[in-house]
Specification:
387 residues; alpha+beta; Phosphorylase Kinase, domain 1; 2 domains; 5-stranded antiparallel sheet; 15 helices; 11 strands; 38% helix; binds adenosine-5'-diphosphate
């Protein structure tokens, strides 16, 4: 079976899955878009008009302050013109393009309806606080926040190139005999995600929902830089200073086995990076099933293969990278610094000295960062699992 067939098989068999279920915080909280029906339904439900609010005073009234997330009510449409067309929608809101009425700058605005039962004020406040902290070229930048009686609007940089998810579908739909992304293309994406993950983890932030839907391209160019988005399930966690996290959150294909067990740390993000790497190189997920339970069972078994049809031409380094992040035991899994020092990634950095000035400067910064991280890659345990 070709990568093309498997990709379609996968999507066809998951068509009736309800991965968009959002369970309570104490239960499993899952979000995914491999299940296209609910995504489209969600889009259909979204009002055609952008939520426009009258120009409230900046100071909240007593009655509105009671249900305020940010503590300040201000009208988004006084500052921005919001486009009607929805760029994308997730669990908690729809995203549209907006234009700063003064500067003319184009941004994206995610409008979250506060009365939506799935929206918990404490989670939303946390997403805003975490996003405000994140200042990294591969992480979406929060430019502005507005709140009115009905909505909280998060204004971020606009990513015009769409989701990594869609590029996977496009590339792997292309039945031209090549398996999905080339190693070079995949390593470039993974390298950028890893620098973002390393940045988050250094600051004690765990994303907990890394997946191709949450990786956006800045522009439509094939080699556009990417940005990690959606900190809706993220949290701060000081490993070693507080007990392991226990809330089961994430998305079936990408969720780490220890998360399903309800006892985990930041390395759950590296597992998701491993799953994304695998998919980029072959076009289908390493852990699959006909429904959530089957996918979860496959994740918990932690067994996967490199079928020769798609993997025979893949380098040893790439497979070794995947083996070292898809380690079921999180203690044996590479951390972000180890992963950035892995030969597959280091080789990509070494081969791209002649990229544009900005990218070259970024790579130089990263080189210094990596060497100062003192991570000794050799000595890191390899999986004994045959795959
Ligand atoms: P939610 O938290 O509700 O799940 P997301 O933040 O994941 O919402 O955004 C939903 C979708 O909206 C994304 O998958 C993407 O397609 C689109 N989107 C989000 N942020 C941007 C952005 N900055 N630029 C362009 N599109 C975006």
């Amino acid at each position: 079976m070709s990568a093309f067939d498997i990709q379609h098989y996968d999507i066809a068999t998951t068509a009736n899955m309800t991965f968009d279920e959002v369970f309570s915080a104490d239960d499993v909280k899952c979000t995914s878009r491999f299940d296209s029906p609910s995504y489209n339904e969600q889009q259909a439900d979204i009002p055609a008009m952008a939520p426009i609010s009258p120009c409230y005073s900046k100071v909240s009234s007593t009655s509105s302050a009671a249900n305020s997330i940010t503590g300040i009510f201000s009208s988004i449409d006084c500052k921005y013109h919001i486009d009607r067309q929805v760029l994308g929608s997730g669990h908690y809101g729809s995203v549209r393009e907006c234009i700063d009425r003064v500067t003319g700058q184009r941004c994206a605005v995610k409008s979250i309806r506060k009365s939506d039962p799935a929206v918990k004020p404490v989670d939303l406040a946390r997403e805003i606080a975490l996003l405000k902290e994140m200042k990294h070229r591969s992480i979406i930048r929060l430019a502005d926040v507005h709140e009115d009686a009905e909505y909280v609007h998060l204004v971020t940089d606009l990513c015009e190139g769409g989701e990594l998810f869609d590029r996977i579908i496009e590339k792997c739909d292309d039945d031209n005999g090549t398996a999905c992304f080339s190693e070079d293309e995949a390593a470039k994406i993974i390298y950028q995600i890893l620098t973002a993950v390393s940045y988050m983890h250094t600051r004690g932030v765990v994303h907990r929902d890394l997946k191709p839907e949450n990786v956006l391209y800045e522009t439509a160019d094939e080699d556009s830089p990417i940005k990690v988005i959606d900190f809706g399930l993220s949290r701060e966690h000081r490993e070693g200073f507080e007990p392991p996290m226990s809330t089961v959150v994430g998305t079936p294909y990408y969720i780490a086995p220890e998360v399903l067990k309800g006892r985990y740390g930041k390395s759950c993000d590296l597992w998701s990076v491993g799953v994304i790497s695998y998919i980029l190189l072959c076009g289908y997920p390493p852990f699959n099933g006909a429904n959530n339970n089957e996918v979860h069972a496959a994740v918990q078994r932690g067994r996967y293969r490199f079928p020769s049809a798609e993997w025979s031409g893949t380098s040893r380094e790439a497979k070794d990278f995947i083996r070292r992040v898809l380690q079921k035991d999180p203690r044996k899994r590479m951390n972000a610094e180890h992963a950035l020092n892995h030969p597959w990634i280091v080789q990509w950095i070494a081969n791209h000295g002649n990229v544009d000035t900005n990218a070259r400067e970024n790579i130089e910064d990263d080189r210094q960062y990596i060497s100062s991280a003192k991570s000794v890659f050799r000595g890191f345990p390899t999986s004994r699992r045959k795959s």
